[in-house]
């Protein structure tokens, strides 16, 4: 029973993290929440310009997501390949394990856990890629001969935020999968690595220098937006060459 618990623990921790962190964000904004404010600024600024700049930014983001989605497929195939090499893997574990010798069933269950995490990462990345694709379409559909409404800007920014949220979910699956690799060395090492992973992710989201920098930038932008005159009172940009 202990072996089963330690084997499944990284998967449970990953799922719990994705459930608990959004609840914490209601009381303390995370780095992801702060960056959603910048995403809205991006969309608001994109409504006032006609240039390939936004398409280039979107393409770079989608390229990164696509690369990680492809990597997830390779990892899934690698786990399936390991299922076919269990005798060799068991011999390696006999010399690697620090505590005990795992049974074939223990290893099969753990490989199933690893497979589940990589499959979830794949679905998270592909869903993120699809949502970023929707974002590009919505951004390209903007009409530049009139001012976009606040509702339009919010909807497009929310689509970008959904893509980022699923991208982060896929990245977390990679982080927690490190603990599943540590399990082959020691059951309790997997628990320790998993807890350290939670602390690292929490620090990055709520207490890192990137969080402080992004929060400062969002505060400055909010102050400038508050002090700026209404858009209807601003002079129209010159289109002379």
Automatic annotation (TrEMBL):
Superkingdom per UniProt: Bacteria
Keywords carried by this UniProt record: Membrane, Transmembrane, Transmembrane helix
Residues that span the membrane, as ranges: 61-83, 104-125, 174-202
Keyword Acetylation appears in the UniProt entry: no
Pfam families for the chain: DUF599
Coiled coil: none
Entry-linked PANTHER family: OS09G0494600 PROTEIN, PTHR31881
Protein known as: Putative membrane protein
């Amino acid at each position: 029973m202990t072996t089963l618990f330690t084997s499944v623990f990284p998967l449970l921790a990953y799922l719990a993290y994705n459930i608990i962190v959004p609840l914490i964000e209601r009381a303390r904004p995370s780095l992801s929440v702060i960056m959603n404010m910048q995403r809205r600024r991006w969309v608001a600024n994109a409504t006032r310009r006609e240039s390939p700049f936004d398409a280039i930014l979107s393409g770079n983001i989608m390229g990164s997501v696509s690369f990680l989605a492809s990597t997830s497929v390779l990892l899934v195939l690698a786990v399936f390949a390991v299922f076919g090499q269990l005798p060799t893997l068991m011999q390696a574990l006999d010399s690697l394990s620090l505590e005990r010798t795992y049974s074939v069933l223990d290893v099969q269950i753990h490989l199933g856990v690893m497979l589940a995490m990589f499959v979830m990462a794949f679905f998270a990345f592909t869903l993120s890629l699809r949502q970023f694709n929707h974002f590009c379409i919505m951004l390209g559909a903007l009409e530049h001969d009139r001012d976009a409404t606040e509702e339009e800007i919010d909807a497009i920014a929310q689509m970008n935020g959904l893509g980022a949220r699923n991208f982060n979910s896929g990245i977390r699956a990679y982080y927690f999968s490190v603990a599943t690799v540590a399990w082959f060395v020691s059951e309790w090492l997997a628990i320790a690595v998993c807890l350290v992973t939670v602390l690292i992710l929490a620090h990055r989201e709520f207490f890192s220098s990137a969080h402080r920098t992004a929060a400062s930038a969002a505060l400055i932008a909010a102050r400038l937006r508050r002090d700026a005159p209404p858009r209807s009172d601003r002079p129209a940009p010159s289109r002379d060459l």
